[in-house]
Specification:
The protein is of the alpha/beta class. It is built from 8 helices and 6 strands. A 6-stranded mixed sheet has the order 2-1-5-3-4-6. Helix 2 (51-58) crosses helix 3 (65-84).
């Protein structure tokens, strides 16, 4: 009898150990599945590339200049649109998590289970009714997320952006007369008509056509000096007009020639005195940059204050 009881006890212990082992194995597999990192997941992948990398991927092989410019303009326009838009709205509404019912041990039959379910449904209905009664219709909810309002705001921002771009393009296409002086030790004053959106390089190319001695000179070998500042070729006249930039001896956004005539000098008011810009050959500047007036000239730096 003792050996039989001992055998039953051992078999019972063996079953308990087997059950504990199976439960621990299931738990281990569950944890491993939760902590599994999916290969190829785009969670840490950079989705937005810069314009240059997109250009490289879009212009493989030989591409004509007009096609290259068209692709670049499309990419820049797309980037501006993305900057103006809000984050994409998800189509699916977030579902409220259902409140979990505590597990109850029951040794009753199916009738008891049905009664428990009915009671749970009644409690849920009471809770929902109570929650609805607690809402205050007079409370301001404008700060809460609203998909329709966000969509209206996004459309309005896009329309304002397009309107602003069109307005700036109209301003850039306006024509202005620029008085300048070809400087080779003495001044030779001329006037050229340009658009406000033209770059300094385009302006120098127009000046080159007015002087026979400059027609064989490349625009890269010409300098434009305005108010004792050497203006880099990539800037436009519109940049100085919209920013009201100033040089050492006058405004950079005024391209005519006039003097500031005052009966009483006031140091608190800036002088409204504009001088003709100088078009200079780079070789002449390199030879004479230690002599006045070239010794005063500096390269324009928008971050540096010259007032």
């Amino acid at each position: 009898m003792d050996s039989k009881a001992e055998g039953l006890r051992q078999s019972m212990f063996e079953k308990q150990r087997q059950k504990i082992y199976e439960e621990s194995e299931k738990e281990r597999q569950k944890n491993a599945k939760l902590s599994e990192v999916r290969v190829g997941s785009d969670k840490f992948v950079k989705t937005k590339t810069d314009i240059e990398s997109q250009l490289k991927s879009s212009t493989i092989g030989l591409t004509e200049l007009k096609d290259y410019r068209k692709i670049r303009e499309d990419l820049e326009e797309q980037q501006k649109r993305e900057a103006a838009k809000t984050a994409p709205l998800s189509d699916e509404k977030r579902k409220k998590k259902k409140k979990k019912q505590p597990l109850k041990l029951s040794f009753a039959g199916d009738e008891d289970e049905d009664e428990d379910e009915d009671e749970a449904e009644e409690e849920k209905k009471k809770e929902t009714k109570k929650r609805k009664l607690m809402k205050d219709p007079t409370v301001d909810t404008s700060f809460l997320p609203d998909r329709e309002r966000e969509e209206r705001e996004r459309i309005e921002r896009e329309e304002l952006r397009k309107e602003w771009i069109e307005k700036q393009e109209r301003v850039k296409n306006e024509k202005i007369d620029i008085t300048y002086s070809y400087w080779d030790g003495s001044g030779h004053r001329k006037v050229v008509t340009c658009k406000k959106g033209d770059t300094i390089q385009q302006f120098l190319d127009a000046c080159r056509q007015q002087f026979p001695q400059l027609r064989g000179v490349n625009t890269d070998n010409l300098l434009y000096v305005k108010e004792d500042l050497i203006i880099p070729h990539h800037y436009t006249f519109y940049d100085f007009i919209i920013n009201k930039a100033r040089g050492k001896s006058g405004p950079l956004f005024s391209f005519d020639v006039h003097e500031d005539i005052r009966f009483v000098n006031d140091a608190t008011i800036e002088k409204d005195e504009s001088h003709a810009g100088k078009v200079v050959e780079r070789a002449w500047y390199e030879r004479n940059k230690h002599i006045f007036p070239a010794s005063r000239w500096e390269i324009f730096d928008p971050a540096k204050s010259v007032s």
